[in-house]
Amino acid sequence: MTSEDEIKITIKKVIDEALQEFMSEISEVCADSREKITIAEQETSNEVNKILLEKDRQTDIIRRQIIGHAEMQSRNKSLQIVEDAVNQTFNKALSQLSSKSSKESEIILKKLLSESVEAVGGKNLTTSCKKEHRSILSKVSKSVEKTKKVKITIESKSIDCVGGLVTKSMDRSIIYDNTYEARLERIRSTLRKEIASVFSKGRSS
């Protein structure tokens, strides 16, 4: 028997005892009074039932609210864990990329510039990189010009980034951000899904 059943039984017992005592005290009252007492008894019973039903309803509402709040907290915590993991992965990747040697940076910039030329299109383009890589970019741009048969102008103003480059069409109508940061951002949603999948499997195992 549940606590709510016990409460119902206790309430009914108290009401029944009170009504029995009340009925014994007015046993000599006329039939009209007895009819009124019967009506009062029914109304009292109905009111008690209403109170109990309302109590059950309120209890269910509170229970649902508590469960809903707990589920939301758990979901928010999971999302935060996934986002933290994504950020840590990005930071680690950027740290590793920033420590590349000049030779490695040259290979990377050449690949990124070739991709950017294909993405922007046209025969005349401008490109820019961070200050520390300008000499490397100047070298690889000559090689890419010959390979892609285009004219590449290195902009005088450097960009603030960990690495990579930004390439534009000569009229600046097309801009292709191929910095390390931009490339990572383009895979953020995919990485988030992969980490979330690993996290979900870990929780269910």
Description:
This protein is α+β, with helices and mostly antiparallel strands. The chain contains six helices and four strands, in the order αααβαβββαα. Strands 2-1-3-4 form a four-stranded mixed sheet. The two termini are 36 Å apart. The model has no long low-confidence stretch (mean pLDDT 77).
Name the structural class. Answer: alpha+beta
Shape from CA axes? Answer: rod-shaped
Helix-strand string: HHHEHEEEHH
Number of strands: 4
The averaged pLDDT comes out at 77
Question: How large a portion of the residues is in β-strands, by DSSP E?
Answer: 5-15%
| Termini Cα gap | 36 Å
Work out the helix count.
6
- What would you report as the Rg, rounded to the nearest angstrom? 39 Å
Q: In which range does the helix fraction lie? A: over 70%
Sheet with the most strands: spatial strand order:
2-1-3-4
- Main sheet? 4 strands, mixed
Low-confidence stretches are none
